[in-house]
């Protein structure tokens, strides 16, 4: 079968560009035993993919120059050599950035009435699991606490804030990069307060939004946001370090927060986590978040870009913060 895919043309220094990607056509054979041939319907673009473009050791292998990129995707089975899987079945797998894929590792999905399959890449997928375990397991959130979320209009942050509210947070505060996103957080997603980090000093804006301090900080940004959060943390507060997108495209390491002594003074717990270590929590997340989504209690925003050929621009737009909620490419 004729298929199309994007490959890594070169490793970027600083910000990636359209020239970072190479579009190629390939021919795929019929699936062998244990494989299915999938026509991808939606693919994900995520911040972690930027790190994989660098030739450095990390929690997942780097992309190889000249080889196809990969990432989360949802698609329909075209041919199957797996018992119990037939053409037309919907599957979630890790070979995105291509029109079709031969996959042996996948999860067969049960469609949910009224819910787009794309949500298995967002509000019912990896971002949702990240938000769920980061807030509840890593940060050990309890009802009645105040939560601050950076990058709160993104795929993960928007879910963290809503889950915190559904779980009984006293106050949820978010930061975002535009006035429209700030309004979206408070008017549509139920955040109690939000601010535009481009409007001024983050430490000052957070202190004004959280006069009684912060008990849990969910960090998607790092940099000045982490420093601001450390100044506002209450005693015995917890910080879940999910990402640091503010530095992903920097060519040199930015200076770290200048107030790490606050970790000692306020007896804080600061813990980094990788969602891949928490796949055992996926059933619990689906069992709780699925009904919230189907019942309209949780808002799952998506920014949808049409066409595989536009996947690089979707990825670059996501890095620039142009998305509200999950950025996905519809093939």
β-strand number: 15
Integer count of domains: 2
> If helices are DSSP runs of H or I spanning 4 or more residues, what is the number of helices?
9
As a percent range, the share of strand residues is: 25-35%
CATH class of the largest domain: Alpha Beta
Q: What Rg, in angstroms, do the CA atoms define?
A: 20 Å
Q: So, CATH architecture of the largest domain? A: Alpha-Beta Complex
Helix and strand string, N-terminal first?
EEEHEEEEHEHEHEHEHEHEHEHE
Assign a percent range to the helix content.
25-40%
Shape: globular
Rounded mean pLDDT is 94
CATH topology (level 3) name of the largest domain: Quinone Oxidoreductase, Chain A, domain 1
- Secondary-structure content class: alpha/beta
Oligomer: single chain
* Major sheet characteristics: 7 strands, mixed
End-to-end separation: 17 Å
| CATH-level-4 superfamily name of the largest domain | Medium-chain alcohol dehydrogenases, catalytic domain
- Which residue ranges are poorly predicted, with pLDDT under 50 across at least 5 consecutive positions? none
Characterise the protein shown here.
There is one protein chain. By secondary structure, the protein is an alpha/beta fold. The chain has two domains: 2-122 and 301-330, Alpha-Beta Complex (Quinone Oxidoreductase, Chain A, domain 1); 126-276, Rossmann fold. It contains nine helices and 15 strands. Strands 3, 4, 5, 6, 7, 14 and 15 form a seven-stranded mixed sheet that branches. It has a six-stranded parallel sheet with strand order 10-9-8-11-12-13, sandwiched between helices. Helix 6 (223-232) links the parallel strand 11 (214-219) and strand 12 (233-241). Helix 2 crosses helix 3 (155-166) and helix 5 crosses helix 6. The radius of gyration is 20 Å and the shape is globular. The chain starts with a strand and ends with a strand. The model has no long low-confidence stretch (mean pLDDT 94).
């Amino acid at each position: 079968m004729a298929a199309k895919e994007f490959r890594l043309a070169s490793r970027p220094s600083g910000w990636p560009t359209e020239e970072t990607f190479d579009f190629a056509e390939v021919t795929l054979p019929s699936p062998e035993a244990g494989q299915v041939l999938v026509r991808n319907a939606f693919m994900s673009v995520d911040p972690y993919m930027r790190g994989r473009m660098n030739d450095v050791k990390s929690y997942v292998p780097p992309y190889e120059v000249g080889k196809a990129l990969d990432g989360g995707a949802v698609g329909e089975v075209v041919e199957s050599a797996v018992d119990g899987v037939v053409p037309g079945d919907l599957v979630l797998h890790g070979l995105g950035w291509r029109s079709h894929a031969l996959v042996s590792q996948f999860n067969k999905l049960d469609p949910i009435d009224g819910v787009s399959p794309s949500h298995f890449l967002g509000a019912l997928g990896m971002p949702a699991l990240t938000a769920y375990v980061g807030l509840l397991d890593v940060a050990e959130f309890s009802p009645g606490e105040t939560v601050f979320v950076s990058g709160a209009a993104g795929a993960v942050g928007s879910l963290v804030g809503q889950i915190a509210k559904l779980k009984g947070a006293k106050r949820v505060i978010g930061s975002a990069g535009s006035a429209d996103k700030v309004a979206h957080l408070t008017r549509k997603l139920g955040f109690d307060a939000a601010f535009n980090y481009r409007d001024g000093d983050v430490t000052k804006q957070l202190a004004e939004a959280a006069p009684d301090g912060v008990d849990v900080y969910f960090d998607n940004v790092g940099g000045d946001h982490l420093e601001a959060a450390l100044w506002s943390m209450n005693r015995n507060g917890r910080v879940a370090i999910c990402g640091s997108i503010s530095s992903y495209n920097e060519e040199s390491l930015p200076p770290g927060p200048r107030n790490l002594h606050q970790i000692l003074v306020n007896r804080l717990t600061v813990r980094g986590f990788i969602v891949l270590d928490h796949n055992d929590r996926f059933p619990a997340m689906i069992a709780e978040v699925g009904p919230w989504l189907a019942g309209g209690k949780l808002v799952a925003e998506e920014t949808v870009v049409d066409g595989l050929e536009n996947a690089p621009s979707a990825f670059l737009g996501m890095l620039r913060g142009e998305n509200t909620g999950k950025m996905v490419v519809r093939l």
